[in-house]
Design brief:
alpha+beta, three-stranded antiparallel sheet, Cytochrome p450
């Protein structure tokens, strides 16, 4: 075959290839993507994005990208093209349009360890069904009549073990409190008994893997976590079998009927696998985030003595009223009197940012503020960046609980914009089902803490984002018993 004949044979293929690239370029050009850098192939900018930094900041990566590209920029994170948003309006828009324009889209490794039926990764009708179950069990009536008492009992169980002038990890104590509470709340497990302690041990291993690189290799934290997950699910399954047997035999136990496992077995048609993943995900969500929030409050308050003093005054008044009425346990009216405490809780969540960003995916092409978000692209609304935005919150790195009183008193449109930008529990249809329980736990723990103890940091430590929030040294504190004048 001559050269001219070869060229003629290859020409159609060459023209097709050129046409293909032209079409690709036209398709790319029709999108007005935000500015940004896609980084290295596959890895993109993930390593830089996940580099640890102070939890009371947005980190060097975000600072540099916002400075260079603005509050909305493109990147390549977790192996996918991504739109990152530090914009309060876009974040609200994303969360409010859940299921219509966007849907939850966590990395596959998260689903692999939490389970495919975990509420964190579910979307659509199944997520709504699981959420309704959780909301029914965490109803306002149940918080008032049952959970408030349980929260106070478990708070006192932990605080009564604190010896005067002792030093210990406040982070570990907060985790002990929330784990014991959730184990009791979910499966009626008593604190301190062998099976609860064994479950806690497995759960600690499990948690280390959830927040580790997803390397399923011998000896890695992720592999150990998968093994602990299997052990935990077998434990829950045994509890389920025991309950079902009792139900068939007509054996009633009021306490077990009131926990989540009993409620789900009686009031849902979920499969065994779905129940196991639901319980595991609620144990994860209810324990980890609340314990970090309590540890953050313990960390922030010593740096603001005026806030501790105002807290003590508020809780002494509540305690005095209890004493005069001859009551000992807190009730819902007492909880509703904790106005300044709620300001401290809001400020702790704003400055500490337990949940720093969310994973979403565009379900169709979306245009916002002149920028296009292509269908199928990942979208990361960065909640922490909004909470630490100086245009929305004055001196955002400063722990100032009184800002929430000022916002409440001031009904200007700018203030409303600030409060609507505060989303520590997410928003829209996926708003955290346990948000009210989390605030109740923090308030009751703070109530007994400030009435009975002085505390200070025993050594320097600070909250870091890994991106999960953690204290590298466990937040060591020294406590002294304090008896309030009641």
């Amino acid at each position: 075959m001559s050269d001219s004949e070869l060229i003629l044979c290859l020409l159609p293929s060459f023209l097709a290839l050129v046409l293909f690239f032209i079409l690709i370029r036209r398709k790319q050009k029709r999108f007005n993507l935000p500015p940004g850098d896609m980084g290295w192939p596959f890895l993109g900018e993930t390593i830089g994005y996940l580099k640890p930094y102070s939890a009371t900041s947005i980190g060097e990566f975000m600072e540099q990208h916002i400075s260079r590209y603005g509050k909305i920029y493109k990147s390549n994170l977790f192996g996918e093209p991504t739109i990152v948003s530090a914009d309060a309006g876009l974040n609200r828009f994303i969360l409010q349009n859940e299921g219509r324009l966007f849907e939850c889209s966590y990395p596959r490794s998260i689903g692999g360890i939490l389970g495919k039926w975990s509420m964190l990764v579910l979307v659509g009708d199944m997520h709504r069904h699981m959420r309704i179950i959780s909301l029914n069990f965490l109803s306002h009536a149940r918080l008032r009549t049952h959970l408030l008492r349980e929260v106070e009992n478990h708070t006192l169980l932990v605080l009564k073990t604190w010896q005067d002038n002792s030093v210990f990890s406040a982070q570990d104590e907060a985790k002990k409190f929330t784990f014991n509470l959730m184990a009791k709340h979910i499966m009626s497990l008593d604190p301190g008994v062998a099976e609860t302690e064994q479950l806690k041990k497995e759960y600690i291993t499990f948690m280390k893997g959830v927040v580790s690189p997803p390397l399923n290799l011998p000896g890695t934290a992720y592999r150990k976590a998968l093994q602990s997950r299997s052990t935990i699910l077998k434990f829950i399954n045994r509890k389920m079998d025991q309950r079902i047997k009792k139900m068939r035999e007509g054996i009633e136990n009021l306490e077990e009927d009131n926990d989540l496992l009993g409620w789900v077995l009686k009031h849902s048609n979920l499969s065994t696998e779905q129940i196991l993943d639901l319980i595991l995900s609620l144990l994860f969500a209810g324990h980890e985030t609340s314990s970090v929030a309590i540890a953050l409050a313990i960390y922030f308050l010593p740096g603001c003595p005026r806030a501790i003093q105002q807290l003590r005054e508020e809780h002494v008044e509540i305690a005095k009223a209890k004493k005069q009425s001859g009551e000992t346990e807190l009730n819902w009216d007492d909880y509703k009197k904790m106005d300044f405490t709620q300001c401290v809780i809001s400020e702790t969540l704003r400055l500490g940012n337990v949940v720093r960003f969310l994973h979403r995916k565009a379900l169709k092409d979306v245009r916002y503020k002149g920028y296009d978000i292509p269908c199928g692209w990942k979208v990361l609304p960065v909640i922490a960046a909004v909470h630490l935005d100086p245009l929305l919150f004055d001196h955002p790195q400063h722990f100032n609980p009184w800002r929430w009183q000022e916002m409440k008193q001031n009904n200007s449109s700018s203030t409303n914009s600030n409060t609507s930008s505060f989303m520590p529990f997410g928003g829209g249809p996926r708003l955290c089902a346990g948000s009210e329980l989390a605030k109740l736990e923090m308030a009751v723990f703070i109530h007994h803490l400030v009435l009975n103890y002085h505390w200070e940091l025993a050594e320097k430590d600070q909250a870091f984002a890994f991106p999960f929030v953690d204290f590298p040294k466990g937040l060591p504190i020294r406590i002294r018993h304090h008896t309030a004048c009641i």
